[in-house]
Structure formats: structure tokens, C-alpha cells
Amino acid sequence: MSDGSNIEWTDATWNPVLGCTKVSPGCKHCYAETFSERFRGVPDHPFERGFDLRLVPHALDRPRSWRRGRLVFVNSMSDLFHEDVPLEYIQRVFRVMEQCPQHRFQVLTKRADRLAEVAGELPWPKNIWMGVSVETAEYRSRIHALRRVPAAVRFLSLEPLLGPLGNLPLKHIHWVIVGGESGRRPRVMNAEWVRSIQRQCARAEVPFFFKQWGGRNKKAAGRELDGREWSELPGASGAAVGDVVAVG
Asked: What does the domain layout of the chain look like in residue ranges?
């Protein structure tokens, strides 16, 4: 975990769970797995067990030590709704978020069905932003699952964007992030896929954040789309902007 982050849309990361398993094409070149496996077998290193899934209960209280409010990306190195993370532990993570109203917590999952299944057993204060990852049109059902969750801010991470997504169901969605894949073997993202999403967000008045073009040298590729950077966030101050009633 880190008080500070190179991820463009957050301020800090918090990992009460480490490790994960692949569930869809967006996981193929997982940056978290690549990083973690470099340290497998290194004694006493946080990633001594590589990318094997494990709970990290000693990390639960970390956000309490940050007095200044931050945007906090939860489990940048895992998925809180992984099927092997017990519901009781997810509830403990949510209680910490509930008890730290100075922060805004960004929770992101590919396991949207489990999220929807257990959402009724979790607290949903306004400082918890809940999102799902969607990389191709085949996984648009994750958006519909998210729309059943009573989070004040629901967001989409369309990264790595691997194909056109068509018409997105943006009603009751409050933020959209788009990004291309980076790394040694990045899959190409078509600019028209990005422009289509940006236009849909503009029509629906949904904040749009373009994270990166990606590629082997993502810094050189930059994050401009049609001559400007898009760094919009939910609400003028990042506050909740939508209803908090679950929708079908």
C-alpha cells in the first residue's frame, strides 16, 4: 500500500488483500501479477508468496493513520470480491471505510456478480465509490450488476479497453475511466473506441477520465485525446452526485 500513487485517478492505494486469479481477457497482462511475481520467494518481502491470494489483516487500520482526506484506491493489487475472500472480511474492510469519512474510497472489481450478491450485507456510506472493470462488449453485464448496488458513486473502468463497447448503459453511472494497455506486449486500443465513449459520456453528462493510450512507452504516448487531457471526477468536489437507491 502507498500514501501516494502513480495511478492518475487516485491519491493513495490500500491493499487489505493481496493476490488474485484471472477471470477475463483484461487480466492477461496483469501489472499486479507481473510486479508481485518478481519477489516470489524473497524472505519477508510483502510479495514473498508472489501473486497467491491472501488476506492482510494487519493492513486494515492503515487508512485511519491518514488524517488528511485522500482518494484511496482499494486493492490495487487484488480484487476485494474474489470468491476466496470471506464475506466477513469484506465487511471488515467496509467498516474501516465507513469509519474514515475523511477519505473517498475507490473500490474496483471484475467480480460484479458477487458484488451484487453481497451488496445488501454491506454498509454504503457516501464516501465509498464502487466500480467495475469492462474490457470488451462481452463483459457489459458487469455494468448491469453494478447498477443494482446502492453506492452513491458508481463508476466504470474501461481498461484495458480491448474492443468497441457499443452503446453503454450510463444511467445511474457517475464516472467513466478509459485507458489502453501498457507493458511489454500491449494490445492495441483504437482511438475511435475511446471517442465513442467520450461522446456518450458527454451526452449523458457523466464525468470522463482518459487515463492513458498505453503501449510499450505509455509516458511517451501520453494521455491527450483530440488535443486535451480529460481528468473529470464525480461532482464538483468529488462528492456523490447520484441517487443512492439500487436500480435494476
From this structure: 12-229
